[in-house]
């Protein structure tokens, strides 16, 4: 099966689930606090990951040989901080759309810096298209956050 055909739909689905997750966590945080919401979300996430791991263990591709770099084990730290900080931001005047817009802008800018300086993996020169994409995303954030909003 050609999995490259699924890359874009899976990424879109992940983005939609991220928005849903942040909304759910913000509701938990509004009633219990951002740290408690983060604990609950990550506890349920760990149980879900364990169930998926068990269900797909036989059909999963073989892992890469050797050990991952030590820093690879730190992925849970930004994940936990993202959940807690997003829960706070969503319950602010930014709301869900503003929080997600700034999160995407942060991901894009950090990704460009990482690629430019080879911080996490590949190193590549940035292009005019990269700069244009960053400006468009930042402009979209500004429109979402600072434009006068009339109720629909």
Annotate the secondary structure layout.
Blueprint: H1 4-32, H2 34-56, H3 76-90, H4 95-117, H5 128-146
Helix pairs in contact: 1-2, 1-3, 2-3, 4-5
Distance between the termini: 44 Å
Give the tally of β-strands.
0
Order of helices and strands: HHHHH
Structural class: mainly alpha
What coarse outline follows from CA principal-axis ratios?
A: globular
Low-pLDDT runs: none
- Beta strand %: under 5%
Average pLDDT figure: 88
Helical stretch count?
Answer: 5
The level of helicity is: over 70%
The radius of gyration over CA amounts to: 18 Å
Profile the largest sheet: none
For the structure shown, list the relevant keywords.
single chain, 152 residues, mainly alpha, 5 helices, 72% helix, 0% strand
Structure report:
This protein has 152 residues and is mainly α. It contains 5 helices and no strands. It has helices at 4-32, 34-56, 76-90, 95-117, 128-146. The radius of gyration is 18 Å and the shape is globular. It starts with a helix and ends in a 6-residue tail after the last helix.
Condensed summary:
The chain is mostly helical and 152 residues long.
């Amino acid at each position: 099966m050609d999995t490259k055909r699924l890359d874009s739909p899976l990424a879109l689905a992940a983005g939609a689930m991220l928005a849903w997750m942040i909304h759910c966590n913000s509701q938990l945080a509004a009633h219990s606090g951002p740290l408690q919401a983060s604990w609950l979300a990550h506890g349920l996430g760990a149980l879900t990951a364990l169930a998926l791991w068990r269900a797909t263990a036989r059909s999963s591709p073989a892992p890469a040989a050797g050990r991952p770099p030590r820093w690879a084990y730190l992925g849970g730290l930004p994940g936990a901080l993202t959940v807690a900080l997003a829960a706070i931001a969503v319950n602010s005047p930014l709301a869900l759309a503003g929080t997600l817009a700034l999160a995407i802008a942060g991901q894009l800018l950090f990704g460009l810096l990482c690629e430019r300086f080879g911080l996490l993996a590949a190193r590549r020169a940035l292009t005019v298209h990269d700069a244009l994409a960053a400006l468009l995303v930042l402009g979209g954030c500004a429109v979402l956050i600072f434009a006068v909003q009339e109720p629909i």
